[in-house]
Amino acid sequence: MKYYYFAIIDRFDQPIFQETFEVNKKIGEKSGYVEIIFFATLDLLNEVKWKSYGSCFKNIDTINNTLISGFIGMSGVRFLLLHNDQITENINEFFLDIYEFYIRAIRNPLQKINSESDLFSKTFKQNVFQSFKFRLC
């Protein structure tokens, strides 16, 4: 069974959005395990960004047949995707879709941007899910 765990992390290393798609029970039961993997991968992503000119990084790390891909936006926001799917062709398009939705969400002048508030509306979550279904399923 394929599973995906997606997170948006701000420039201060605080997760501001997390979503799970088609969760395998092994991952769902160990949410702390996933967070440890993500924070370890943030260090790798910070190293890789200075060695490459791109913003999308496929297969940054592999842990127990689980791949981690990342994306770095212009404002320092990072997207991380934990997945067990070996086909990574559409991950870049998925990240670009989500980045576009993210930019739309933070451009709202009435919206506070911090990890404390619920930054993302139902519309944002629906757009993320639709992009996931279209690009990765």
Characterize this entry briefly.
InterPro entries: Longin-like_dom_sf (IPR011012), Sedlin (IPR006722). The chain has one domain (2-136): Beta-Lactamase (2-Layer Sandwich).
Overall description:
With 137 residues, the protein is of the alpha+beta class. The chain has a single domain, classed as 2-Layer Sandwich (Beta-Lactamase). It has helices at 25-29, 31-49, 91-106, 122-136, and strands at 4-9, 15-21, 56-63, 66-72, 78-83. The termini are close together. The relative contact order is 0.18. The mean pLDDT is 80. Keywords: ER-Golgi transport, Transport. InterPro entries: Longin-like_dom_sf, Sedlin. It is found in: Cytoplasm, Perinuclear region. Belongs to the TRAPP small subunits family. Sedlin subfamily.
User: Strand-residue fraction?
Assistant: 15-25%
Query: Describe the biggest sheet?
Result: 5 strands, antiparallel
- Assign a percent range to the helix content: 40-55%
Q: Identify low-pLDDT runs.
A: none
What is the name of the CATH topology? Beta-Lactamase
Overall 3D geometry? Answer: globular
Number of helices: 4
What is the radius of gyration computed over CA atoms, rounded to a whole number of angstroms? Answer: 14 Å
What structural class do the secondary elements suggest?
A: alpha+beta
CATH class: Alpha Beta
Total discrete domains: 1
Strand order of the largest sheet: 2-1-5-4-3
How many distinct beta strands?
5
N- to C-terminal distance: 12 Å
CATH architecture: 2-Layer Sandwich
